[in-house]
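Slide 14.
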Amino acid sequence: MQSRIYSIEQVKIENLIVIPEQPPAIAVSASGSVTTSGWSQPDLAPWMYITPPRDGILDLDFVATPPTGIVLQVISRISVVKTFAVPAWLKGVRVHSSQNQVEALLEGEMSTRGVTPMEGWPLPWPFPWWSPNARA
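Slide 15: predicted structure.
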C-alpha cells in the first residue's frame, strides 16, 4: 500500500509536444524526502473531481511504497515524473505530501489551435507510432 511521502522540495511542469487531434499533455516532475531508506514505486496520484476546481489547479498526492523490514533511519531523496492529459480548465498543479504542498503553474497556453502538423519538427518523422494521416 502506498503512502504520502514526508515532504516536497520541488515541482516542475514541462509542456510536451502538441500533436493535432490528440489532447495536449504535460509532464509533472516532483522531488522530495522520505524518513527512511527503502521507499520505492513513487507516483503522483491525481485527485478525482466531480466538478472542476474553481482555481484551475489539479491536486496530486506524491505517494510511494514504504519499506518493510530493517531500514536506515535517514532522510532520503525521492523523485518522480508522470505525464498527464491536460483538461481545458487546467492552470497548474498542486502536489501534496504529509507535511507540505507545492504548486507549479502552466506557462503559456496548451492549445492546438493554429498548429500545422509537422511544422518545425525534425525529419524524418520522429514518432513512428503516430503520423498526422494515421487513423486508428
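Speaker note: The chain has one domain: 3-105.
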